[in-house]
């Protein structure tokens, strides 16, 4: 099987084609407005392409915000869903099931972290990590006998949309949207070890960070900083929590981004890419940190066999021999293409790791480019502007050279008109 899913124009009887007429009007009144959506309805997808209700196709370099590791509707995922769907959907998290056990064993082997808790989203995985660190801090109190609960996080970081993970995040303005915040998350500066040291106090139990701050505009933690942070946390008896919700599962060219710094965290969270498009996440920890007691943590769909079967198929594919080498080669190719466009149009370069990259535009035209790219004809292009002055690229990990070339050509056309 080829690692790249080549784009294909769907036949007239493709899934969703017969239902297109129902979307002639947009019955959006029943949906709670939480984002501004364009007036189009996606009906089906294949590999790197999405198709809307009018038959137009879009080259997708967002892929659900780094979710669709293998692109849209990859055969291994379809097969896993169909096979498991005919067997067992959810026996309740109070019982073992086969895919749960197999995926947990695989993740433990791949990560070196011996215990796994499954959840539905990255935010839930991060909530679990926060709870686990605080529970560990209760069992390992400070010198005065008080429970340690503070977790140092970072400005511009992003850890989710629950109250606790919003409080842990350092996204500007999030401290007032649903005030008051959950206490216990002092903010340091990324790549500034002194700022971390200055915040360590008797109540500190852990440090939590993303190896690359995705929502901040693909801002990497340096290898030196990660190494020094690991050494600092070990020296001070603190846990190191690495949020790999966006960077994990092959996205940066290694299975987990922190591996590129040669470190091992105490706790790691996964989401997005682990399910390849289905709601699945995980929190992993070292064996000695498995301090939850029955009832401390749970979830109705925790470890359900349907999602775990898909996750198992995705992780087996991503960890197969040759796959990550392919990702790294495609990443180098994409990086070179973006750098060429930056030089051509007077931008400020590009950055990132693997297939999580940003093009620094040098001016606040990102949102306009996103809209113009989507409206291109005959094919549209789906891009993301995490910050007004840049574009973020999160294609499928099996993206082809032809798809990268087509995206770069389309982006070249857009920049010529907007710069």
Automatic annotation (TrEMBL):
<keyword id="KW-0663">Pyridoxal phosphate</keyword>
<feature type="binding site">
    <location>
        <position position="161"/>
    </location>
    <ligand>
        <name>N(2)-acetyl-L-ornithine</name>
    </ligand>
</feature>
<dbReference type="GO" id="GO:0042802">
    <property type="term" value="F:identical protein binding"/>
</dbReference>
<protein>
    <recommendedName>
        <fullName>Acetylornithine aminotransferase</fullName>
        <ecNumber>2.6.1.11</ecNumber>
    </recommendedName>
</protein>
<comment type="pathway">
    <text>Amine and polyamine biosynthesis; ectoine biosynthesis; L-ectoine from L-aspartate 4-semialdehyde: step 1/3.</text>
</comment>
<keyword id="KW-0963">Cytoplasm</keyword>
<dbReference type="GO" id="GO:0003992">
    <property type="term" value="F:N2-acetyl-L-ornithine:2-oxoglutarate 5-aminotransferase activity"/>
</dbReference>
<feature type="binding site">
    <location>
        <position position="300"/>
    </location>
    <ligand>
        <name>pyridoxal 5'-phosphate</name>
    </ligand>
</feature>
<feature type="binding site">
    <location>
        <begin position="243"/>
        <end position="246"/>
    </location>
    <ligand>
        <name>pyridoxal 5'-phosphate</name>
    </ligand>
</feature>
<dbReference type="Pfam" id="PF00202">
    <property type="entry name" value="Aminotran_3"/>
</dbReference>
<dbReference type="InterPro" id="IPR004636">
    <property type="entry name" value="AcOrn/SuccOrn_fam"/>
</dbReference>
<dbReference type="GO" id="GO:0045303">
    <property type="term" value="F:diaminobutyrate-2-oxoglutarate transaminase activity"/>
</dbReference>
<feature type="modified residue" description="N6-(pyridoxal phosphate)lysine">
    <location>
        <position position="272"/>
    </location>
</feature>
<dbReference type="InterPro" id="IPR005814">
    <property type="entry name" value="Aminotrans_3"/>
</dbReference>
<keyword id="KW-0808">Transferase</keyword>
<dbReference type="InterPro" id="IPR015422">
    <property type="entry name" value="PyrdxlP-dep_Trfase_small"/>
</dbReference>
<comment type="similarity">
    <text>Belongs to the class-III pyridoxal-phosphate-dependent aminotransferase family. ArgD subfamily.</text>
</comment>
<dbReference type="GO" id="GO:0005737">
    <property type="term" value="C:cytoplasm"/>
</dbReference>
<dbReference type="InterPro" id="IPR049704">
    <property type="entry name" value="Aminotrans_3_PPA_site"/>
</dbReference>
<keyword id="KW-0055">Arginine biosynthesis</keyword>
<dbReference type="InterPro" id="IPR015424">
    <property type="entry name" value="PyrdxlP-dep_Trfase"/>
</dbReference>
<dbReference type="InterPro" id="IPR015421">
    <property type="entry name" value="PyrdxlP-dep_Trfase_major"/>
</dbReference>
<dbReference type="GO" id="GO:0006526">
    <property type="term" value="P:L-arginine biosynthetic process"/>
</dbReference>
<comment type="pathway">
    <text>Amino-acid biosynthesis; L-arginine biosynthesis; N(2)-acetyl-L-ornithine from L-glutamate: step 4/4.</text>
</comment>
<keyword id="KW-0028">Amino-acid biosynthesis</keyword>
<dbReference type="GO" id="GO:0030170">
    <property type="term" value="F:pyridoxal phosphate binding"/>
</dbReference>
<dbReference type="InterPro" id="IPR050103">
    <property type="entry name" value="Class-III_PLP-dep_AT"/>
</dbReference>
<comment type="subunit">
    <text>Homodimer.</text>
</comment>
<feature type="binding site">
    <location>
        <begin position="122"/>
        <end position="123"/>
    </location>
    <ligand>
        <name>pyridoxal 5'-phosphate</name>
    </ligand>
</feature>
<keyword id="KW-0032">Aminotransferase</keyword>
<feature type="binding site">
    <location>
        <position position="158"/>
    </location>
    <ligand>
        <name>pyridoxal 5'-phosphate</name>
    </ligand>
</feature>
């Amino acid at each position: 099987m080829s690692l790249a899913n080549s784009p294909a124009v769907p036949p007239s009887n493709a899934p969703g084609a017969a239902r297109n007429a129902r979307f002639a009007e947009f019955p959006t009144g029943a949906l709670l407005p939480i984002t501004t959506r364009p007036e189009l309805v996606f009906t089906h997808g294949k590999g790197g392409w999405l198709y809307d209700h009018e038959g137009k196709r879009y080259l997708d370099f967002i892929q659900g915000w780094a979710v669709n590791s293998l692109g849209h509707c990859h055969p291994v995922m379809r097969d896993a869903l169909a096979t498991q769907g005919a067997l067992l959907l959810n026996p309740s998290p109070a019982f073992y099931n086969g895919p749960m056990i197999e995926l947990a064993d695989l993740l433990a082997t791949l990560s070196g972290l011996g215990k796994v808790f499954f959840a539905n989203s990255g935010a839930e995985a991060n909530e679990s990590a926060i709870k686990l660190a605080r529970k560990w801090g209760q069992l390992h109190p400070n010198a005065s006998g008080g429970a340690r609960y503070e977790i140092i996080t970072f400005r511009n970081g992003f850890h989710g949309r629950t109250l606790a993970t919003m409080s842990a995040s350092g996204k500007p303005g999030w401290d007032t949207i649903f005030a008051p915040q959950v206490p216990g998350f002092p903010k340091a500066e990324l790549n500034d070890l002194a700022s971390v040291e200055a915040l360590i106090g008797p109540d500190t139990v852990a440090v939590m960070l993303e190896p690359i701050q995705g929502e901040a505009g693909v801002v990497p933690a340096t290898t030196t900083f990660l190494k020094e942070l690991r050494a600092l946390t070990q020296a001070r008896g603190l846990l190191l929590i690495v949020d790999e919700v966006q960077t994990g599962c092959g996205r940066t060219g290694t299975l987990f981004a922190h591996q590129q710094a040669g470190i091992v965290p105490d706790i790691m969270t996964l989401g997005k890419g682990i399910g390849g498009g289905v709601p699945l996440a995980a929190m992993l920890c070292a064996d000695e940190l498995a301090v939850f007691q029955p009832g401390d943590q749970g979830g109705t769909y925790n470890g359900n066999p349907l999602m775990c079967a898909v996750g198992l198929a995705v992780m087996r594919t991503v960890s197969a021999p040759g796959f990550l080498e392919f990702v790294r080669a495609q990443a180098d190719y994409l990086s070179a293409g973006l750098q060429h466009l930056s030089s051509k149009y007077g931008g400020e370069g590009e950055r990132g790791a693997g297939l999580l990259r940003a093009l620094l535009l040098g001016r606040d035209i990102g949102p306009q480019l996103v809209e113009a790219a989507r409206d291109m004809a005959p094919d549209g292009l789906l891009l993301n502007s995490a910050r007004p002055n840049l574009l973020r690229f999160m294609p499928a990990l099996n993206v082809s050279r032809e798809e990268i070339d087509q995206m770069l050509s389309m982006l070249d056309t857009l920049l010529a008109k907007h710069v």
